[in-house]
Design brief:
alpha/beta, Rossmann fold, 2 domains, six-stranded mixed beta sheet, four-stranded parallel beta sheet, globular
Length: 323
């Protein structure tokens, strides 16, 4: 069985009880993130699922703890590795320390400096690669250290189910929600939320959002398959890859109802608005979700925007707020 078939077989068969169990497993390590009303968007009700307020500033702590706790229940863990732009690795590092395991992190040279510094301070073995080489590790899971258990930040069933705990909370907080706007990086966040909502018997519109400098899901939907895209640098470092992962494409194809592409200037404006209006500090990916949710396309909708993280480089934040 291929890794794609295995991934789909497990997550598509996940029951609502599996997402509830993940939420209960994570309760000692994460908080139910608040759902904050955002005024001033006429024609719709917009609320912000503030995952940027989680410990370590990202939803990734859910996936990291769920996948590692489940792995530890099946085998002894001593040395593990991952490839991450920063947020997932921080969550995994926190979980690894509690389990007494060593973590090697392979990070792209495009990752924000504050994320690199946080990983060094936490004691991770950090390896910085060009984005191309980092993407190869993400695709192949090959790090050159066969003795380490590689934990993929996206394509692991327990990662996706851990992310789905957000969907469980969202339904408890706002049963009337009918649209969820989710930033698309690897796709594990959107897939987890969509599957959790579907397992609860709810058909809620799932809208992915991407940044204009790298929009591989939009390109894949247009082509009917994953295709490489040109990637330009921007302050939005948590999303935007060269191509949709082959393992994730069938899930994203079937679970995502629409995709909104946001400009860099819209993302910058979203950072400013959230800081000034709601006193929320968000990173680029979360700003993209807020900007997309503000689109006129969602009039007469109950829209939840997933603010995925708050780990924006402080120098970038200061520059955006002063511009």
């Amino acid at each position: 069985m291929s890794t794609t078939q295995r991934l789909h077989e497990i997550v598509l068969q996940a029951r609502h009880a599996d997402f509830i169990s993940a939420s209960e497993r994570l309760a000692p390590y994460v908080m139910p993130s608040p759902l904050i009303a955002f005024p001033g968007r006429p024609g719709r009700t917009l609320r912000l699922k503030a995952e940027n307020l989680q410990p370590l500033g990202s939803f990734k702590i859910r996936a990291a703890f769920n996948v590692l706790l489940q792995a530890a229940s099946r085998r002894s863990l001593s040395r593990i590795a991952t490839a991450s732009a920063g947020n997932f690795a921080q969550g995994l590092m926190l979980a690894a320390r509690q389990l007494g395991a060593q973590l090697s992190v392979h990070i792209p040279d495009t990752a924000a400096e504050n994320k690199r510094a946080a990983l060094r301070n936490m004691g991770a073995n950090l390896f910085v690669h060009s984005f191309t080489d980092w993407w190869r590790i993400l695709m192949t899971r090959e790090t050159g250290a066969a003795e380490e258990l590689f934990i993929h930040p996206v394509c692991e069933p327990d990662v996706i189910i851990g992310n789905g705990s957000i969907g469980v909370e969202l339904l408890e907080q706002w049963p009337e929600v009918d649209t969820v706007v989710v930033p698309i990086g690897g796709g594990g966040l959107a897939a987890g939320i969509a599957l959790a909502l579907r397992s609860a018997g709810r058909r809620i519109r799932i809208v992915g959002c991407e940044i204009e400098t790298a929009a591989p899901l939009s390109a894949a939907r247009a082509a009917g398959r994953p295709v490489p895209v040109n990637r330009a640098p921007s302050f939005v470092d948590g999303i935007g890859s060269n191509c949709v992962l082959d393992e994730m494409w069938p899930l994203l194809r079937d679970l995502i109802d629409d995709v909104v592409v946001v400009s860099v200037e819209q993302a910058r404006a979203a950072v400013r608005t959230l800081a000034q209006t709601n006193h929320l500090v968000v990173e680029g990916a979360a700003a993209v979700a807020f900007a997309a949710a503000s689109s006129p396309d969602f009039e007469a909708r109950n829209v939840a925007a997933i603010l995925s993280g708050g780990n924006i480089d402080h120098r970038v934040l200061c520059e955006i707020l002063s511009s």
